[in-house]
Amino acid sequence: MAKDFISRGDLRLIPLAELRLSPLNSRQEIAAEEVEAMAESLAVAGLLQNLIGHLTPRGVEIVGGGTRLRALQRLAAEGWSRHPDLIPIDPVPVKVTADLQEAVAWAGTENSARSALHPADEVRAYAAMRERGASLSRIARSFARSEAHVERRLKLADLPAEALAALRANEISLEMAKALTLAPSGERCLEVLTSVRGRDVRPEQVRRELTPGTVPSTDRRAVFVGLEAYLAAGGTSQRDLFADRTLLEDEALLDRLFAEKGAAEAERIRVEEGWEWATWVPEEYVPWTATQKLVRLYARPGKLSDGEEAELAALEERDAEDALDEAGRARLAELEARREGGFTDAQRASAGVFVYCSSRDGLSVERAYQQPRAVPRGAAEAAPDLPQSLIEDLHRIRLGALQARLMDQSELMLDLLAWSLGGGLRPWARPLAVSPTDQPIAPEKGEGTSYPERLAARLEPNTSLGPDGTPAEFEAFRAQGKKHRNQILTEALARTFCTGSSGLSAALARQLGVEVRRIWTPTAQGFLGRCSAGYLDRLWSELVPAAEADQGFQKLKKGEKAKRLEALFADTATREALGLSREDCAKIDAWVPAELGWPEGEA
Question: The pTM is what?
């Protein structure tokens, strides 16, 4: 053997029989399966990386590439006959040094931070194995890679040779090569390659250029329709392995299927829930223009007796322990539905809903709206049951009732503050209007409404200029302690709680047990006198059983009806005179108009 390895880092061809494993190589023991996998890889793809050796008085000893050395020795022992066209790898390319310290450094580098194959070389190696008939799983085992990784690399192998050469020469990035796999033809791929080579072009820009008019399978329309249904209808697609998605190529077909399925779902919901109409909305929200001329209806909130509330709590506890039988689950569902409340049959028969598909929630329903009543030509339009100003007052009162409960929920308000400021929410979805800006909760006519003093105080005009904000004033404030600070912060945040469309207010109201009747009583001036006479008639019939009802109520003037109902709500003697039962009185004490309830779609 030649003894002329004088320079450091020489790359030489050395007969395989003269090579042996160095004691410096840390991988002295290697599993037979690993050697076999490497032998198969070398037999198909060749030696893609040279070995690293140390020149010693005993010859060249391999400090880096011990697995490859063993695999080569196995192939040599087989007579290089594993494949008919296998070319013997002997002599072997070895990078050699005579410097012991350098050899030690090489051994450490090779075994602790092995340099990976260049992606282009890896692609060519996988492609060579595929051309020899090796399966995906066999290639993956040979290179100790996942099948998904090999599949993606083989996708790159289908690029034109010029594109792979550009990748190997580092003229394009690996990400750019991945983008080029979306080209519909080799000619188009080379055309784009020419335009991006040597330029600062983002791969995503190339992806969009190569797939105009396509829709990703993650699009809400594609998710709603379903890829199988789209393909069954004749749609075409291509798979983007590197983005882990499928691209739908016929957007017009997708839109047609989207509209058809949406209309079918809207009709299904209409029939199942009993609405007069249901309209499919192709947007991912119901636009204001679709509802601006309609009358909004609200679900009637449910109410359980104290006994039923206790029963429901017990059933929920047993359900959490998975200890309910079929009858128990049915009773739980019944009580939950009754507490939730809902729309009446009369509302459903004269109103409708909008059905749409959102990116976040999928199929969604916005309930409920009613067409304005048609008025015959020449006839005076009937006054609404509740004028808009009264509805707005009721909504303010409803919000005030929730704010009053929130004033005692320090941790909850801090959670809402953090979520509003740092949760990435859309501006209109933030539960707190943190400017800070107190929200309007004072009704236009406030008789019958009584907020807690600390909340009501903010409704009075403040003529004082307040402190000047001096350091001394701030220190005096801090001296009052954290409890005082937290109370002020909680109350201030509670006053900023506003409404949106996410259902959060409804959920919090149920969680906190908000009861609007604690702060509001129906009075003639504040509520009843502002309703229509027909509304008052229906309310009397609803609250006073037929056997006890005053048959002359409908003959009263509207103002007298309002006073009579006010007495029903506030005067024990009136109830006794009517002979009302305890259950009847409980119903009266719990009654609120639908506009003071918390429907799911309304925050």
Answer: 0.45
CA 115 to each of CA 37, 72, 84, 106, 354: distance values in angstroms, whole numbers, following the listed order: 19, 20, 31, 12, 59
Query: pLDDT per residue over 504-521, tens digit each?
Result: 788 888 888 888 888 899
Cα 438 from Cα 497, distance rounded (Å): 8
Q: Return the H-helix or E-strand segment holding 64.
A: strand 59-64
Compute, in degrees rounded to 10, the torsion defined by CA atoms 250, 252, 253, 256: 160
Q: What does the pLDDT look like over 147-203, one tens digit per residue?
A: 888 888 888 888 888 888 888 888 888 888 888 888 888 888 888 888 888 777 888
Beta bridge partners of 279: 354
> Under 8 Å CB-to-CB from 391, ≥6 apart: which residues?
595
Q: What does the block give as tokens for 326? A: 């079929």
Residue 357: CB atoms within 10 Å: 23
Give the distance, in angstroms, between the CA of residue 368 and the centroid of all CA atoms in the same chain.
25
Structural tokens at position 490: 């909680």
Positive or negative, the CA dihedral 331, 602, 432, 488 is negative
Query: Of 121, 97, 91, 92, which is closest to residue 109 (Cα–Cα)?
Result: 97
Residue with the two structure tokens 């008639």: 537
**Strand, coil or helix: what is 111?**
helix
By the 8 A CB rule, do 213 and 185 touch? Answer: no
Nearest to 445 by CA among 533, 516, 531: 531
pLDDT the model gives residue 246: 84
Please measure the distance between the N-terminal and C-terminal CA atoms of the chain and give it in whole angstroms: 87
Give exposure, 94-121, as e/b (b: 16+ Cβ within 10 Å). bbbbbeeeebeebbeebeeeeeeeebbb
pLDDT tens digit sequence for 294-313? 888 877 767 778 888 889 88
What are the backbone angles phi and psi of residue 50, rounded to the nearest 5°? Answer: -70, 165
Tokens coding 134: 């090796």
Say how far apart CA 278 and CA 115 lie, in whole Å: 63
In the block, which residue shows the tokens 């990035």? 173
Domains of the chain, each with CATH number or no CATH: 10-115 (3.90.1530.10), 215-253 (no CATH), 256-370 (no CATH), 388-459+477-518 (no CATH), 528-596 (no CATH)
Structure-token pair, residue 575: 């109830």
3-state DSSP assignment of residue 367? strand
Question: Locate tokens 């009993």: which residue?
Answer: 274
Classify each residue of 213-234 as buried b or exposed e, where b means 16 or more C-beta atoms within 10 Å of its C-beta. Answer: ebbebebbbbebbeeeebeeee
Query: CA-to-CA distance for 136 and 150, rounded, in angstroms?
Result: 7
| Dihedral sign from CA coordinates of 36, 39, 44, 49 | positive
Give the pLDDT band of residue 468 (cuts 50, 70, 90): low
Look at the block and give the residue holding tokens 């090579």: 19
Ordered alpha helix ranges (H), 46-173: 66-77, 100-112, 119-131, 136-143, 147-157, 161-168
- 576 has pLDDT over 70: yes
DSSP-derived secondary structure letter, 422: H
Strand order in the sheet with 237-240: 215-216, 245-248, 237-240
Cis peptide before 368 (omega within 30 of 0): yes
